[in-house]
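Student: Please help interpret what follows.
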Amino acid sequence: MLEKCLVEKRVEAGCDEAGRGCLAGPVFAAAVVLPVDFSNTLLNDSKQLTHKQRLILKQIIEQEATAYEVSMVEPNEIDRINILNASILAMHQAISKLGVKPDFLLIDGNRFKPYPNIPHQCIIKGDSKYMSIAAASILAKVYRDEYMCKAGEQYPAYSWHKNKGYPTAYHRAAITIHGVTPLHRQSFKLIEKQLNIPFSK
């Protein structure tokens, strides 16, 4: 059973990202503030849930959350500032758009840059420990998956509707054959022996 909060009677926002290890597409992040009486036995780390369960929970979270926001950072910005900084930037952007200012931030993982005037705590595997982080992980994952499926309609050769931009053998092989798209992260090792690959039309 996930914990409702780190400290009772404090407005906490859970934050998580999705797509950090992908070869293509933006990195997404979400920030979620849940009401103190929120409860859902299905809620868990998004990686432990099926696609159908994530969609059900997305609807519940968006209906019942005190506040939530989702943000993304594009591949060219990931290449410019690196994926860690881009992930943190996406979290900061989501936090900044929240309709309710949290007293404290619960961050999944072990790296974060302080957000102005709001203290935080990094929690390793926090998405399997705290409800608000789990909720953020679900929103970030669902929004990113939907984005990559739509992008895959424009670039069908890479099978993004299946791999969502992650480095599967099929995805790497498709890059070798077809080259890269504007959504591929140039700073990542896209193929095993990376050369100057032309943009595909």
In short: The CA atoms of residues 23 and 189 lie 8 Å apart. The longest strand covers residues 12-18. Residues 131-154 form the longest helix (24 residues). Strands lie at 12-18, 27-33, 67-73, 104-108, 120-123.
